Structures are given as structure tokens and as C-alpha cells.
């Protein structure tokens, strides 16, 4: 049996596509039969809207108020994208938990909530939205674009962090602050947390400014910058507007983005050495692309 992996998608600069990455990773997990729970911590609740879940009688705001199993069960719904992908739904009311200077108990609420879903054998998923017994293998936390209680709570609960940015003049400082936040949380009380990598979004080919910023990021952060970059394609926004995973949007731009998310999922799964001791296999071996129809 495998253990759950909790991954936070993080950005301390708004408008860079953090939610796009969370949704793309969730779509890749669904495509490759990796049972997944998306936790929408952003008060804008854009992930929840795009994932089109069934109605719930509670939200993540209620869970943070009272992280009991019964509240969790009422706040988790099956995604409209298909079986195997559930949502701990977000809401505007989550903002009341985004204190700028939270105490230790406030920061621990999300971790405690996720712990309530743990099987006796240590696996998340004793209750899933459709009543299945299969555990979640992956939990994706979509964080708000600020370093308040919500983002810090996600880092306190996560094992890995994907740092999302775009190739603009503010990218370097934004990534540096996000990286520092991860390192601070590691020292504060979550030594399992590691930065998975920096994913650059909204890249335009043959754009001199973008090429310069990407080179700058790679010079500063080295191998932490992921090789695959997300292109600036309208198909991504179109798929989100249709409440569909990018993996089902049949255009060249969508296929290009989908390939990046498949590689990211492979890196996510390969990063968990507790579950996969074979450190020599590459990302493509972990998640094989779907068969061509």
C-alpha cells in the first residue's frame, strides 16, 4: 500500500496561474488514475468553480472552524470531472481564517483536518465523496497568493510545494519569497516539506523578455526550475471556462500544456521516496502517457 502525498501549489505573486497549475495537475492525476483530493484554500474558490463539484452542506471554511470528520465529510464532493477526483470545496468565507499573524493552533488546523481522514493503516481516504473505500494517493492544496494563515497552514500540512511563477520582472522576488516561506516552515515544524520545483507559466515563444527572465530564474535557482514550461495558450482558459480538464480539450495548445502536467505529475510521484524507493527511474517511467486513440 502507498502513502498519501500532500502537494501545495504556491505563489506569492497574484495572477501567475497558480490555480491553473493545481487544476492541470489534478487533471493529469485523473487521466492516470491517481485518486486525488483537491483542497481549495483560496477564498476566490476558482478551483472549486472549475472542478464543478456536487453541492455540499459545508466548505473548507467550516473545516478550519471545526476540523472534525463529520464536517470534513460534508465539505468534500465528487468533482464534475469524473470519478477519482474529489474536492474539499472552497468559499469566500475562508478569508476569515487568513490572519496575518496566526498562532500555532491556527496553523495546525488544516493538518489536523487532513489527519481526520486517515485510515488506521495511515492512508487518506477512509471516506471519499462517492463512498468508495479506495484511499486518496494525492492531495493538492490550492493556496491563496499571499503569505497569511491559509498559505502557511498549507505548508504546515504539505510534503511538497510547487512554486508557480511567470516570466516577468517581478518573478524573481516572488519565487524567492515563496522559497523562503517553504524553508521557514521546514525549520518551524514541518521537516517533511520540500520545494518540488519552480514551474514557469504563461511563456510566449520567441519573446526576448520571457527568455531573459527564464534564464535569470535558472541562474538563481538552478535545477529547482522545472525543464517543462507552460505555454501562454488560450486553450487553458477555455478549458477552465468549460469546467473541463485541459487533458480533454482537443487543440494543439491544450496537448502541449497537458504534456507539461503529465511530466509534473511524474515528478510529484517520483519525489515521494517513502513510497517509491527506486530513485533511478525518470518521470516518464512513473507516469506513462495515455494510449493514442
What does this entry look like structurally?
By secondary structure, the chain is an alpha/beta fold. The chain has one domain (8-272): Rossmann fold. Helices cover 40% and strands 12% of the residues. The chain contains twelve helices and seven strands. A seven-stranded mixed sheet has the order 3-4-2-5-1-6-7, with helices on both faces. The longest helix has 20 residues, at 252-271. The radius of gyration is 18 Å and the shape is globular. Residues 119-123 and 274-293 have low confidence and may be disordered.
Strand order of the largest sheet: 3-4-2-5-1-6-7
CATH architecture: 3-Layer(aba) Sandwich
The CATH C-level name is Alpha Beta
CATH topology, by name, is Rossmann fold
Largest sheet: 7 strands, mixed
Overall geometric form: globular
CATH superfamily: P-loop containing nucleotide triphosphate hydrolases
Amino acid at each position: 500500500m502507498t502513502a498519501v502525498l500532500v502537494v501545495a501549489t504556491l505563489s506569492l505573486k497574484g495572477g501567475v496561474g497558480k490555480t491553473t497549475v493545481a487544476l492541470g495537475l489534478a487533471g493529469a492525476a485523473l487521466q492516470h488514475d491517481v485518486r486525488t483530493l483537491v483542497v481549495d484554500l483560496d477564498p476566490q474558490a476558482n478551483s472549486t468553480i472549475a472542478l464543478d463539484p456536487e453541492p455540499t452542506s459545508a466548505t473548507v471554511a467550516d473545516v478550519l472552524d471545526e476540523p472534525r470528520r463529520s464536517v470534513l465529510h460534508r465539505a468534500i464532493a465528487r468533482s464534475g470531472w469524473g470519478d477519482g477526483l474529489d474536492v474539499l470545496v472552497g468559499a469566500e468565507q475562508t478569508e476569515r481564517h487568513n490572519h496575518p499573524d496566526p498562532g500555532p493552533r491556527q496553523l495546525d488546523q488544516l493538518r489536523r483536518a487532513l489527519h481526520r481522514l486517515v485510515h488506521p493503516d495511515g492512508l487518506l481516504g477512509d471516506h471519499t465523496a462517492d463512498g468508495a473505500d479506495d484511499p486518496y494517493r494525492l492531495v493538492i492544496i490550492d493556496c491563496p497568493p499571499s503569505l497569511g494563515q491559509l498559505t502557511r497552514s498549507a505548508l504546515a500540512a504539505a510534503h511538497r510545494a510547487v512554486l508557480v511563477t511567470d516570466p516577468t520582472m517581478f518573478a524573481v522576488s516572488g519565487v524567492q519569497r515563496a522559497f523562503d516561506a517553504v524553508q521557514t516552515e521546514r525549520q518551524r515544524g514541518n521537516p517533511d516539506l520540500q520545494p518540488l520545483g519552480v514551474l514557469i507559466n504563461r511563456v510566449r515563444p520567441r519573446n526576448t523578455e520571457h527568455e531573459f527572465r527564464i534564464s535569470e530564474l535558472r541562474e538563481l535557482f538552478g535545477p529547482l526550475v522545472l525543464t517543462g514550461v507552460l505555454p501562454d495558450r488560450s486553450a487553458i482558459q477555455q478549458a477552465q471556462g468549460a469546467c473541463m480538464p485541459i487533458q480533454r480539450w482537443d487543440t494543439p495548445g491544450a496537448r502541449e500544456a497537458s504534456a507539461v502536467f503529465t511530466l509534473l505529475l511524474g515528478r510529484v510521484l517520483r519525489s515521494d521516496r517513502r513510497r517509491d524507493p527506486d530513485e533511478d527511474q525518470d518521470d516518464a517511467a512513473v507516469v506513462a502517457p495515455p494510449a493514442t486513440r
